[in-house]
């Protein structure tokens, strides 16, 4: 009886955590089980314990080192994947099956095996690197199978298939003709497991380190913000801010996507959350379902691109380049502004094209909301300030989380009482489970490329392919960048954002670096194209989620999302094609940064005219005007003096053609 009573309290906490709005960090996941009762309580307790370990590691790192901590972290999270996510076979029970419990127990054993007190313990395991014993290989092989299964459960078949292809290459690559560029000496099974299980480039490499050190803390922070009422405030503020404008509905959706993205960091989750609130308003304003869904999807994906909580891959960028997270935030500022400028211009154009109506204003003013609940911005500001003062990203987000929890007591309905703190910490860890599975399994990719030299060989093939077409250095770089962008877009259709970045960086990154592209520009190029798979047909997850809210047709919604996000697809090319492109990452002189940003802003305007068929201040744009505007956008984004002059000329032609058409056909909808 005593056990039942003690467990009842924990069950209540688990049910509260399950009832709380789900907080996602990245679009890496399939729907999880809604666990309740004793199982939900047990999962929540373990997740809460993992959160405690993560917080302890921030201030009192384990003396045995980073890999020791990662082993314990994976041992705490991997079993939860098998309990929280369905296998996909059978009828999909809400409660874990016997096989789920067996897999969870096996995951716990094989994860903790390197710490067993026999055979020299953890130090003995490390000393056997390159000389693993048969029992070590067995445990490592089981962990490999479990991680691939965890990936399949959380993200589908694509990433597991990619991992199996890399494993096949590692094992059979020695049988390839040695004259082939991608041939290697070959690895036996023991060598592969050693590279995965007992090296810094395998399961416990940089991707998992980032997930266990940074990403989980930001998911906890997002859960605390969400439970403290910040999500509701951000949406309410967006609704109230534009209440007197004919563009109010569209502007509200975009602003809410940006603000809510600071909480979720997930494109699909943000699009769905914002859509649930703003779609009725968009419908009353006269937006077609597909148009509204595309807008919501594009605004949602901005959550992964926008500081201060970029997508998970941004933390990996910081680790790979050995720079601070604040530096990466600085690189993302101008591209984020250009991204939302493009969406807002498209919104203003759609107001004219679709004769959007004004909607009823909410009773509460934005000023009143700011004076009452504006404190929700405090923790976001604190993160940036602490980073600027030299604090680590981990400590900065922990202090911001504490501040958000303390400020929650200013609102009686959102106070973070002990049960709600438990729920937030448990939800934060559960939200990072798919990312953990992806990052650990990505060790298969990084270890294979490291052991075989595949990354350098594929990069050489990419560059040589461009050189086979032309010998002009600028043209070689342009062709390589376009091929790389296309490859990343295709890759992103199949695998999650984080995995897409990791694969892209080890294969495409070296190609760009070989051609003289600075590392920051190359990394952000790969990062942006990895993220933009969320709005790339035919698997645009954010558009799928938005269409489910609006009831619009899925494929047309995807194309509308692509239209809104078009500047984001072209701006990364500007990073790498010319030296001036680095100014868009806020690198270089102040004058260079300012004028480059202004030119890029004009390019975004030109692209909005080309896709929206409307010239602001003039009227509808015919095909000739749209073609001239599209050419202008491409020329301006090249950022070379000659191309800027040509781009400005083309933009002027587009405006004159639209003006001529308007004079010939008569006045159109007034601005």
UniProtKB/TrEMBL annotation:
<feature type="transmembrane region" description="Helical">
    <location>
        <begin position="294"/>
        <end position="318"/>
    </location>
</feature>
<feature type="transmembrane region" description="Helical">
    <location>
        <begin position="561"/>
        <end position="578"/>
    </location>
</feature>
<keyword id="KW-0812">Transmembrane</keyword>
<feature type="transmembrane region" description="Helical">
    <location>
        <begin position="127"/>
        <end position="148"/>
    </location>
</feature>
<feature type="domain" description="TRAP C4-dicarboxylate transport system permease DctM subunit">
    <location>
        <begin position="143"/>
        <end position="573"/>
    </location>
</feature>
<dbReference type="InterPro" id="IPR010656">
    <property type="entry name" value="DctM"/>
</dbReference>
<dbReference type="Pfam" id="PF06808">
    <property type="entry name" value="DctM"/>
</dbReference>
<feature type="transmembrane region" description="Helical">
    <location>
        <begin position="256"/>
        <end position="282"/>
    </location>
</feature>
<feature type="transmembrane region" description="Helical">
    <location>
        <begin position="65"/>
        <end position="85"/>
    </location>
</feature>
<feature type="transmembrane region" description="Helical">
    <location>
        <begin position="155"/>
        <end position="172"/>
    </location>
</feature>
<feature type="transmembrane region" description="Helical">
    <location>
        <begin position="635"/>
        <end position="660"/>
    </location>
</feature>
<feature type="transmembrane region" description="Helical">
    <location>
        <begin position="474"/>
        <end position="495"/>
    </location>
</feature>
<feature type="transmembrane region" description="Helical">
    <location>
        <begin position="211"/>
        <end position="235"/>
    </location>
</feature>
<feature type="transmembrane region" description="Helical">
    <location>
        <begin position="325"/>
        <end position="347"/>
    </location>
</feature>
<feature type="transmembrane region" description="Helical">
    <location>
        <begin position="39"/>
        <end position="59"/>
    </location>
</feature>
<feature type="transmembrane region" description="Helical">
    <location>
        <begin position="97"/>
        <end position="115"/>
    </location>
</feature>
<feature type="transmembrane region" description="Helical">
    <location>
        <begin position="590"/>
        <end position="615"/>
    </location>
</feature>
<dbReference type="InterPro" id="IPR011853">
    <property type="entry name" value="TRAP_DctM-Dct_fused"/>
</dbReference>
<protein>
    <submittedName>
        <fullName>TRAP transporter permease</fullName>
    </submittedName>
</protein>
<keyword id="KW-1133">Transmembrane helix</keyword>
<feature type="transmembrane region" description="Helical">
    <location>
        <begin position="502"/>
        <end position="529"/>
    </location>
</feature>
<feature type="transmembrane region" description="Helical">
    <location>
        <begin position="422"/>
        <end position="445"/>
    </location>
</feature>
<feature type="transmembrane region" description="Helical">
    <location>
        <begin position="377"/>
        <end position="410"/>
    </location>
</feature>
<keyword id="KW-0472">Membrane</keyword>
């Amino acid at each position: 009886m005593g056990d039942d009573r003690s467990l009842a309290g924990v069950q209540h906490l688990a049910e509260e955590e399950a009832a709380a709005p789900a907080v996602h960090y990245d679009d890496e996941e399939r729907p999880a089980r809604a666990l309740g009762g004793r199982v939900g309580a047990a999962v929540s307790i373990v997740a809460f314990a993992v959160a405690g370990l993560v917080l302890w590691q921030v201030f009192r790192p384990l003396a045995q080192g980073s890999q020791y901590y990662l082993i314990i972290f994976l041992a705490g999270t991997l079993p939860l994947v098998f309990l929280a996510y369905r296998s996909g076979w059978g009828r999909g029970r809400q409660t874990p099956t016997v096989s789920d419990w067996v897999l969870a127990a096996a995951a716990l054993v094989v994860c903790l095996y390197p710490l067993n007190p026999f055979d020299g313990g953890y130090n003995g395991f490390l000393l056997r690197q390159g000389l693993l014993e048969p029992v070590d290989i067995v445990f490592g092989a089981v962990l490999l199978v479990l991680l691939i299964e965890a990936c399949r459960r959380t993200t589908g078949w694509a990433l597991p298939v990619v991992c199996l292809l890399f494993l096949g290459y590692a094992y059979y690559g020695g049988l390839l003709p040695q004259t082939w560029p991608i041939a290697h000496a070959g690895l036996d099974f023991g060598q592969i497991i050693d590279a995965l299980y007992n090296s810094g480039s395998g399961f416990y490499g940089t991707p998992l380190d980032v997930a266990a050190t940074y990403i989980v803390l930001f998911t906890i922070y997002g859960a605390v913000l969400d439970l403290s009422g910040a999500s509701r405030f951000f949406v309410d503020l967006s609704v109230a801010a534009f209440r007197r404008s004919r563009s109010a509905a569209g502007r509200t959706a975009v602003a809410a996507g940006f603000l809510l993205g600071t909480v979720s960091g997930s494109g699909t989750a943000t699009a769905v959350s914002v859509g649930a609130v703003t779609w009725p308003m968009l419908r009353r304003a006269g937006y077609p379902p597909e148009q509204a869904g595309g807008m919501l999807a594009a605004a949602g994906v901005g959550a992964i691109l926008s500081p201060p909580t970029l997508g998970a891959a941004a933390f990996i960028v910081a680790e790979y380049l050995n720079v601070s997270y604040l530096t990466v935030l600085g690189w993302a500022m101008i591209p984020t502004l250009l991204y939302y400028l493009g969406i807002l211009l498209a919104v203003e154009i759609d107001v004219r094209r679709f004769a959007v109506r004004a909607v009823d204003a909410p009773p509460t003013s934005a000023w009143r909301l700011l004076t009452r609940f504006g404190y929700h911005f405090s923790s976001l500001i604190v993160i940036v300030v602490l980073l600027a003062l030299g604090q680590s990203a981990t400590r900065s987000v922990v202090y911001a989380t504490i501040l958000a929890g303390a400020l929650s007591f200013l609102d009686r309905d959102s106070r973070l009482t002990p049960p709600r703190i438990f729920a937030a910490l448990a939800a934060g860890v559960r939200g990072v489970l798919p990312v953990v599975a992806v990052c650990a399994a990505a060790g298969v990719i990084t270890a294979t490329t490291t052991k075989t030299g595949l990354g350098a060989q594929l990069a050489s093939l990419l560059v040589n392919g461009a050189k086979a077409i032309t010998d002009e250095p600028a043209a070689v770089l342009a062709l390589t960048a376009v091929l790389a962008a296309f490859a990343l877009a295709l890759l992103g259709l199949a695998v999650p954002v984080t995995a897409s970045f990791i694969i892209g960086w080890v294969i495409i990154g070296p190609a760009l670096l070989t051609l003289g592209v600075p590392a920051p520009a190359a990394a952000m190029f790969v990062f942006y194209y990895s993220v933009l798979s969320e709005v790339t047909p035919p698997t645009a997850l954010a558009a799928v989620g938005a269409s489910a809210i609006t009831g619009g047709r899925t494929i047309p919604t995807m194309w509308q999302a692509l239209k809104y996000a078009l500047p984001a697809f072209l701006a990364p090319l500007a990073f790498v094609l010319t030296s001036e492109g680095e100014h868009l990452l806020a690198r270089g002189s102040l004058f260079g940064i300012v004028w480059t940003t202004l030119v890029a802003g004009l390019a975004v305007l030109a692209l909005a005219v080309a896709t929206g068929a409307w010239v602001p201040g003039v009227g509808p744009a015919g095909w000739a005007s749209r073609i001239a505007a599209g050419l202008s956008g491409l020329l301006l984004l090249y950022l070379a003096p000659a191309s800027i002059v040509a781009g400005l000329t083309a933009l002027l032609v587009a405006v004159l053609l639209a003006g001529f058409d308007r004079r010939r056909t008569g006045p159109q909808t007034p601005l």
